[in-house]
Write a structure and sequence with these properties.
With about 450 residues, the chain is mainly alpha-helical. It has one domain. It has helices spanning about 1-10, 20-30, 35-45, 50-70, 85-95, 95-115, 120-125, 130-150, 170-185, 195-210, 245-250, 255-280, 295-310, 325-330, 335-345, 350-355, 360-375, 385-400, 405-420, 430-445, and strands spanning about 80, 155, 160-165, 315-320. Strands 1-4 form a two-stranded antiparallel sheet. It has a two-stranded antiparallel ribbon with strand order 2-3. A hairpin with a 3-residue loop joins strand 2 (about 155) and strand 3. The N and C termini lie far apart (about 50 Å).
């Protein structure tokens, strides 16, 4: 089996081994397993069946991630994207979830076509080097913010938008202990430190529940940490959502449907591009020219996931920033992605186990991964303001808008405008003008 993995994923060439890759894959899955519960909860508000969405979410994630493993050999996992699923719910509320699924299907087909014509590959490889590093840093801040929010360390605040949470709350205390323990293990070079951090924090939470320090209260988000005694169950049927498209209703909407389709396309393109750049740069997967060697294959895997997800009955499938947790654990090849994809299949019958892991146990890992990615800021040239300001905007707008795509919009638009305004238009490639025009169109729409 080791020989098969070596031949297929070229482990020695990437300076890794089977154990490291599998541990990295498990870590990635643990940090993104929340999507198995969150996505059905969001989409079920549209009238779709919760069980069908759960199965569709797991299956589409497995299909896309395993495709990524074998096509691109990258340690990147995919699933129904956060933000995109919320937009799906908005579209479904205004029209119908069948029309929203139709938009996802057409978007996915367009993605497949664009992948073959290398349009998205050109975007990945055409973004200036400074902005690539800025995207990595921005994703780091964004993912750290998600971790701090999941831990309850920072909370919504009316006056300042974000405020400090209750540091004496048991879930916050557990998350902080998990963060310190994970950093300590990482510093000591413990193999699988991030995974042990998740499992250790979870076990500590169970102990607190058994001793009464952690009181179950679903109204405030404190769920039972003990898995259901029914550990194995058959996955729910997707018959109620499978191929439930409404092409007639979609095309009757005319321009409104075009706006919906463009919105899905835009966010997915640049969420995926940003995630691939961020994860690849930290995993040393970019070549000497700063390009992603198998960008076409990686983007095609994303497109395949979106099409399969639409057919099964879920929102847009996209690359997950949580993949960076596997890279931080040492994952460098598609074996990491294969492990994550297989675990999504396993989750279909062992859902009670995976869905019992709380957010406070995975939150510390996201903060550590944020630190891991922010170190790329040392590679950005801030001495030239026409490079520094766009990089700065790309960095700060990702966490401030909770969107990788919006960070890229601010970064590229400001970069093009400043280069033209300062007489450096010759440095702007035609693709960057096209992207700037698309961004302006997106803002207008």
């Amino acid at each position: 089996m080791n020989g098969f993995f070596e031949r297929t994923f070229k482990l020695k060439e990437h300076n890794t081994n089977v154990r490291t890759e599998i541990m990295a894959g498990i870590t990635t899955f643990m940090t993104m397993a929340y999507i198995l519960v969150v996505n059905p909860n969001i989409l079920a508000t549209t009238g779709m069946d919760w069980g069908a969405i759960f199965t569709a979410t797991a299956l589409s994630a497995a299909i896309a991630t395993i495709t990524m493993a074998f096509l691109a050999n990258y340690p990147v996992a995919l699933a129904s994207g956060m933000g995109l699923n919320a937009f799906f719910a908005i579209v479904a509320a205004q029209y119908s979830w069948q029309i929203a699924l139709t938009a996802i299907l057409i978007e996915g087909i367009i993605f497949v076509i664009l992948s073959f014509f290398k349009f998205r590959e050109a975007i990945v490889n055409g973004i200036p080097e400074n902005l690539k590093y800025a995207i990595t840093v921005g994703i780091g801040l964004f993912i750290a913010l998600i971790g701090l929010q999941n831990a309850g360390i920072v909370v919504p605040n009316e006056g300042t938008m974000i405020g400090l949470g209750n540091l004496t709350d048991i879930t916050v205390v557990l998350a902080l202990i998990g963060l310190l323990a994970t950093v300590y293990m990482t510093h000591k070079g413990v193999k699988g430190a991030l995974l042990w951090g998740i499992l250790g924090t979870y076990v500590l939470g169970i102990i607190c529940q058994l001793t009464g320090l952690y009181a179950v209260d679903s109204e405030i988000g404190r769920f039972d940490l003990l898995p259901s005694w029914q550990l194995i169950s058959l996955p729910p049927s997707v018959s109620s959502t499978f191929l439930k498209f409404d092409f007639a209703g979609a095309f009757k909407l005319g321009f409104d449907f075009f706006v919906i389709l463009f919105s899905f396309l835009f966010v997915d393109i640049f969420d995926t591009v940003g995630t691939l750049i961020g994860v690849a740069s930290k995993g040393n997967l970019l070549d000497k020219d700063g390009k992603l060697p198998k960008a076409k294959e990686a983007l095609l895997a994303d497109a395949v996931g979106t099409v399969s997800g639409a057919c099964l009955g879920t929102s847009t499938v996209t690359s997950f920033v949580e993949s960076a947790s596997g890279v931080a654990e040492g994952g460098r090849t598609g074996l990491t992605a294969l492990t994550t994809g297989v675990l999504f299949l396993v989750a279909l019958i062992f859902a009670p186990i995976f869905t019992a892991i709380p957010s406070f146990a995975t939150a510390p890992i996201l903060v550590v991964v944020g630190l891991f990615m922010v170190t790329s800021i040392t590679k950005i040239d801030f001495s030239d303001f026409t490079e520094g300001l766009p990089a700065f905007l790309a960095i700060i707008m990702m966490p401030f808008t909770s969107s990788i795509a919006e960070g890229i919009v601010f970064g590229i638009l400001s970069w093009v405008i400043l280069k033209v305004a300062t007489g450096k238009a010759k440095k702007v490639q035609p693709l960057m003008y096209i992207l700037a025009a698309l961004f302006i169109l997106k803002i207008v729409l």
